[in-house]
Amino acid sequence: MLKPSINDLFKSSIRSILKNKGRTVLTSLGIIIGVASVILLTSIGNGLQIYISQQFENLGANTVFLAPGKIFSDKGGFNNSSSGRFISTYFSYTDVSNLKRAVKNVTISPVSIATVKVKSNKTTKTDVSIVGSGYQYAASANYLPSPGNGRYFTKEEEDKKADVVVLGYGIANDLFPSTSALGKKIIVQTKNMKIIGVLDKKGGSFGGPDVDQYIFTPIGNVFDFTGNQHINEMLIKTQTKEQVPQVKDEVTKVMLKKFDKDAFTVFDSSQLLSSINSIIGMLTVGLSGIAAISLIVGGIGIMNIMLVTVSERTKEIGLRKAIGAYPRAILIQFLIEAIILSIIGGTVGIAIGWLGSIGINSFFPAKVTLSSITIAFSVSAFVGVIFGVVPARKASKLSPIEALRYE
Amino acid sequence: MTMIKSSSTNKTVLELVDVVKTYISGNTQFNALNGVSLKIKEKEFVSITGPSGSGKSTLMHIIGLLDNPTSGQVLLEGKDISQLKENQLAQIRNVTLGFVFQQFNLLARTSALENVLLPLLYSDVPKSKREAIGLEMLKKVGLSDKIKNTPAQLSGGQQQRVAIARALVNNPKIILADEPTGNLDSKSGKEIIELFHYLNQEEGRTIVLVTHDIELAHQANRIIIIKDGKISTQNA
Q1: Does B105 contact A319 at a Cβ distance shorter than 8 Å?
Q2: In this complex, how many residue pairs, one in chain A and one in chain B, have their CB atoms less than 8 Å apart?
């Protein structure tokens, strides 16, 4: 016995909302801000995850990393116990040859990093990271210059420690702001070196080093700069993705012969990716949770204005009851009004959040997901129900006589 | 004792049996109605009158099923309504009774037609037929040219006629009017009373008019005078 029909109730609610346009806008503002910020924050979190996944895809799924120290905690996140923070381990050429002997069908690229001073005919830069590697490293790590921008160094150049460098996009521009860096000479520490390639713009990873500011050179040159033969990490490229787990096991076995289990980490890009994603996910949930508090505040705003509306319309409620409205009809009418208010707020908030994330996306990765819209929309409707119930119940319980007498 | 006019029949539509209504405020009890028994016949035009504080408003609320008696019985068409649930009472108010108030109680910023159609929202009348019924009622009260006007655009007399059209829209047996001319000038008030006479005599509706104005009360076929919560006189 649903009289009036939902359709009729809907119409009368819309009408009474439209009678107070200014109030409707102000009341919905709380929900608008809440929903917009939830949408925005989840879109940023989601955009970050997509961006980072893409970055890792560049590294390739068939890459195994060997790095010093304990990187991951046993629970799956990053390790932040004090023992893992100070990395004192380094690898040597002996380790490289041990690995090459034990693990078959892989390309092992040792990497050594030093900090140097670099001089061009125009400028001088200090604290530049120079990455020394084997010739295969560029292919494994996706650091090959694109056609027209030169090349990476060859095996011959690696073997004879040729004085050649490949520049990251950023540092090439810094050293040679007006001309092409390709083919020019720079002085690294005291060594004269020739630029044989310039990388494309890669962009920095979040919080991590900026590849565009790196210089790449045969590993022997870096040993000369540092005065020792320490290898900081190794990049092990397998032939297929399926090989990765087995290679990880083999590498670990070899390394355990010499090192403590907490002194090194063998991992692949998916492991790193899932750790980073779990952190971003947690951050997104946390931030969205904070934003969701404003949804509750918005809901209280709606409850407040609905209580005012019930008071204002006490006489109308009394009249409706006198002419045959049963309590539930009154309850539903006011509930629908509250829900409409919060859905208006939710819809406008989604629109603003969406536009905002499009705006942000031009300088920071942000992507709105269907699930965040669905959640925001249902949460705002839910807020309408929760905070609409109290005023609606109050309205439905008014005694018609009292209500008609109300001035 | 009760005089029946030619227009009324012998059938009782509404009967009150020893109705008591007690209000409790703090430690003090107050009997607004102190054992009221009365019968209202079909097609009768009755007025209930008495000084302020006599209990006539309380009586009106109980007759209108807006309030429950503390004790005693209210029989509507022979049926005891004290056992009915809130929803059933609402339905009777919707279909059997029509209310006319001193304050008109029209919805502001809402057209005359929509005001008239309001009770149909809560009725079983199919949507397709509603507007035609509303227009017919407005025509009956002489406001066919004002259907789109809002209450603010109507005079007091016109507003009360919209309210009467609203009371009629569900074709009720009984019309309850509470000081319907209290907010009107004498000319408009007279027109409203004429309208009640028309509804009573031509359409055979039972009219219960509550007023403190003894002169107005004499417009009815029968006067019930109430004093200190008791009926003191019932006459023609």
Answers
A1: yes
A2: 66
Question: What is d(CA A115, CA A74) in angstroms, rounded to the nearest whole number?
Answer: 32
- Calculate the average pLDDT of chain A: 86
B2-60 per-position pLDDT tens digit: 444 445 677 899 999 999 999 988 888 989 999 999 999 999 999 999 988 888 989 99
Q: Are residues A24 and A344 in contact, defined by beta-carbon separation less than 8 angstroms?
A: yes
State mean pLDDT over A281-310: 87
Contact B105 A8 (CB under 8 A): no
Closest by Cβ to B119, choosing from A315, A318, A323: A323
Tokens of A227: 């005065």
Please indicate whether, in this complex, the C-beta atoms of B99 and A401 are within 8 angstroms of each other: no
Token pair belonging to A203: 């962009």
Mean pLDDT for the stretch of residues A87-116: 86
Q: Cβ–Cβ of A326/B64 closer than 8 Å?
A: no
Q: Which of B99, B98, B134, B132 is nearest to B114 (CA)?
A: B134
- Chain A residues with CB under 8 Å of B164 CB are none
Q: Is the pLDDT of residue A238 over 90?
A: no
Longest dimension (CA), chain A: 103
* Lookup result for tokens 């709380």: A30
Q: Could you tell me which residues of chain B have a Cβ less than 8 Å from any Cβ in chain A?
A: 61, 64, 66-67, 86-87, 90-91, 93-95, 99, 101, 103, 105, 107, 109-110, 118-119, 121-124, 127, 166, 170
Structure tokens given for A318: 């009394």
Subunit contact A323:B101, Cβ cutoff 8 A: no
pLDDT-derived band at A74 (thresholds 50, 70, 90) equals low
Q: Please, are residues A289 and A377 in contact by the beta-carbon 8 Å criterion?
A: no
Cβ pair B31, B68 in contact under 8 A: no
pLDDT of residue B171: 94
Q: What ipTM does this complex have?
A: 0.90
